[in-house]
Amino acid sequence: MSTGTNQPLNERLARALADCEYWEDASFRLQATVGDDEVDEARPFIFGLSYRLLEPAADERRQLAECPFGPAWVMQGGEFPPRLAEVDEAIVESWESYAATAEDPVALARFHDLLWERPQGERHPHAAEAIRAYLDLATGRWDPIYRGGCAVRALELARAINDPELVTAAIEMCVRLVRDDLADPERTPGVALRLAERLIDLPTDLRPSQTEQLVQDIGDRYDDDPFIAQSVADLSSQLSPPDERAEIWRVQVQRWRDEADKASGVLRYAHRQHALELAFNHGLTDLAEQIRIDLQSMTQEELELNEVSADFSFTAEEIDEYLDHFTSAGTWHAALRRFGAHGPPTGTVEANEAAVAEAAARFPLQHLVGTNVIGAHRSLVYRATTDEARHRLRLVQQEGYGLTVFSPLAARVLDRVAERFGVPDEADLVDFLSAGAIERAVAGRLAAALLYYWRGEYDATGHLLAPRIEAAIRHLCVDLGIVLTKPPQGERPGGVVSLGSRGSR
After folding, report:
1. Which of 187, 175, 172, 258 is nearest to 221 (CA)?
2. Residue 387 — pLDDT band, cuts 50, 70, 90?
3. H-only helix segments in 33-185
4. Positive or negative: CA dihedral 354, 356, 357, 362
């Protein structure tokens, strides 16, 4: 690779800094000019400019990075640039040498801040230089979202070194940028909200007197958007006395109910669910009850859901071959024994995990989108919004596919057993079922359920089978030494862990 220019590297770096729209952009511009023979020389600058400055509110990402600077990308366990604590000392020395002579505020802010976080000698002068550069950038040509980030970082650093003059300057810059945003015809609510959050987080003796008015002005400017209005309400509630907060949230809950009334289909349902969560989170039980009534009164037609289906088929020969496996056993005892040993109708955990992984690879977008499972009377049964929750839901769905296939075949097996060997005597059936790990009392009810099935009383069969199967599994858990009880927690009673709960997996 050739550089395509005869300019020295320091001149190309200066040009990248002068033209960039943010630090990573400067890194991209510089990288585009670096030849293979210049990689080592350019590495300190490419590393330093490639880090992402993480917001103070991004606690989890900061914890992972162990500092305010995160990698530009993470892939297959690798990171670029490397974690700040793992950068070679030679590169840190290059940063210090360069920062001592740099003039561009983009470079001064970044490299002095890195040296504050990864110190070589005295730290405070690096922080002070970074703060001044950040404040310079906050009034510069960058996009308002980046200028706001500079002001936020300047305030964080100024408080870290406890410099009253720089703290005041950073606070004044945050206030100025909020006012600039409110006066700008371009809508950029993320700028004003982020800066207002940082002002509210200040101790009361540092928080500027105009903070409450700024929050009110933000609300007036962006009140047409219910999501922004909710964020403003959160800020207002932090500034308000406790006895006024309930009314602030009552207004927001009603706002979401009104938005739901204006919407249709799934969006109406989603807005009502959001209103319900807000009502519960803020103790507005009367509104919560009203919203639950609204939800359960929605009709299937109102949701405007589309049915998604898939077909699968078996030949008559395949079905007969499957059924013959059981009835060829010679007796109903052997046939039912083969039926019981057939394996879980949901499929094995390993096979289901493999199927979910394959589907995620073939249809990645489907596995990135959150899913709500809606039950009877429009109740929200499960919400899959995280990777873990989405995986759990896909796994349960995969198990459900197995049940869908197995259930009609299971009925045919029982029918064939009765046709081939006749309906067993109840006493013989109880003796057969209780010969293993199943308690005799449970076996008696299982036998009664099977006899109900063979008589065509299917509802009675289901009502008897479900609790007895669970009882039999619990008895097996005791024999195998698997914990199936939970202790009381506070006012929540203890007892037996039910099948299907997270504690039973």
Report:
1. 187
2. confident
3. 39-50, 59-65, 89-99, 105-117, 124-138, 144-161, 164-183
4. positive
CA pair distance 291, 303, nearest whole angstrom: 16
Would you give the distance in Å from CA 51 to the centre of its chain? 24
| Interatomic CA distance for residues 440 and 431, integer angstroms | 8
DSSP label at residue 425: P
Contacts of 77 (CB under 8 A, 6+ apart): none
Letter for the amino acid at 499?
L
Closest of 111, 139, 136 to residue 23, by C-alpha: 111
Task: Put residue 365 in one of left, alpha, beta given phi > 0 → left and psi -120 to 50 → alpha.
Answer: alpha
Q: Are 159 and 168 in contact (CB under 8 A)?
A: no
CB of 183 closer than 8 Å to CB of 194: no
- pLDDT tens profile 39-51: 999 999 999 999 9
For CA atoms 109, 113, 116, 121, give the dihedral sign. negative
Whether pLDDT at 311 is above 90? no
Give the type of residue at 13.
L
| pLDDT tens digits, 135-182 | 999 999 999 999 999 999 999 999 999 999 999 999 999 999 999 999
> Of 216, 182, 21, which Cα lies nearest the Cα of 106?
21
Place of tokens 């009164």: 297
Cβ(114)–Cβ(48) below 8 Å? yes
Q: At what angle do helices 144-161 and 105-117 cross, to 10 degrees?
A: 40
The residues spanned by each domain of the chain are: 316-422
The stretch 170-196 carries a mean pLDDT of 94
Q: pLDDT band at residue 356, thresholds of 50, 70 and 90? A: confident
**116 or 74, greater pLDDT:** 116
Q: How far apart are CA 426 and CA 505, in angstroms?
A: 34
Q: How far apart are CA 447 and CA 409, in angstroms?
A: 20
CB 47 within 8 A of CB 81: yes
Report helix, strand or coil for 84: helix
- Does the bond joining 81 to the residue before it have cis omega, within 30 degrees of 0? yes
Ramachandran assignment for 69, one of left (phi > 0), alpha (psi -120 to 50 degrees), beta (any other) = beta
Cα(343)–Cα(388) distance, integer angstroms: 27
The helix-helix angle for 89-99 and 105-117 (nearest 10°) equals 140
